[in-house]
Amino acid sequence: MKKYCTIYLAIIIVLVIFITTLCCTYNYSLKPVSKESKEITIEIKEESTYLSIASLLKENNLIKSEAFYKVYVKIFKPNNLQAGTYLLDQNMGVKKIIKKLEENKASIDTVKLVIPEGKHIEDVAISVAKITSFKKEALLEYWNSEELLDKVIKKYWFITKDVKNDKIRYNLEGYFFPATYEILKDNATKEDITFKMLDKMDEVLTKYKKEIENSKYSVHEILTLASIVEHEAILDEDRPMIAKVFLNRLDKDMMLQSCATIGYAINNWKLTYTNSDLKTDSPYNTYLYYGLPIGPGGLAGKKSIEAVLNPDDNDYLYFLADVYNENATKTYYSKTYGEHQQQCLEYLGKSC
User: Fold this and answer.
1) What is the distance between the alpha carbons of residues 276 and 227, in angstroms, rounded to a whole number?
2) What pLDDT is recorded for position 14?
3) What's the first-to-final CA gap in the chain, in angstroms?
4) Distances (CA, A) of 64 to 25, 195, 206, 257
5) Is 218 helix (H, G, I), strand (E, B) or coil?
6) What is this structure's pTM?
7) What phi and psi values does residue 85 have, to the nearest 5 degrees?
């Protein structure tokens, strides 16, 4: 009997320890993620439930654990979750978040900020200015400010001192991810809007962190080449092909000779460029200087970034798109300059 009593006692002690640990972990998981205030805007869609938004809350670092959040929801069965945009804070904790959602007191007015692929930071400033009280010039000045650059270099792993080169026209050109954003209608700050676009770029690039670490190019160089691919590609299927053409040229120490960089160098996008345009003395001009330009010339989308990190396997050095045909959907590739010129004569009716 003494032996069995010892076994029972040991089991009870283990159970008590297990239950105590579980309860402590549960209570800890319900506490705020941070003691400091950081407001986060989330959008809850129609037909969402308290359980289905667990991943959304976790992705926005509003809760510590999806599992224990779901346990809390199943125990207390909150109701009255309505679709809309809510302003929550990382210092709230699960109980306060649920209470605010349940009472529907956090609903706020927002406006959409649409940033398409291939646009430039000046276009972003114009779009932001249209839906806020900020002026285009003030935004561009803020995005170039030393204070902001130091802050984002410290905050984001993918932003380095490369952006502080004084020859770069707009220091954060190419770093805002093109997407549709929900912006606070009345009280969004320049920092809120900026971090929202950089947070999205962080999210996208983090998925390719292994490829980036294995690449011989820096993030700045990857975004620079991706911005060129974004401009040059007609179809999505062309992106990995064109990315490889430029990578092949870089490997052979050939000039990239991309019209995309001429447009940015002269700040004027045209169907064709003159000899004078090609001779423009600019660190963005790849007809004048070898290697990659000094920085991105626009906002590359996910597919262009992916194309640079996972390019096609080819040994082409030239490509041609029939830019004079508005219905053109095909890009032609060549391995030699002679083949390229032959295609120029055939599809453009003139030498390139």
Assistant:
1) 23
2) 66
3) 98
4) 11, 22, 20, 50
5) coil
6) 0.76
7) -105, 130
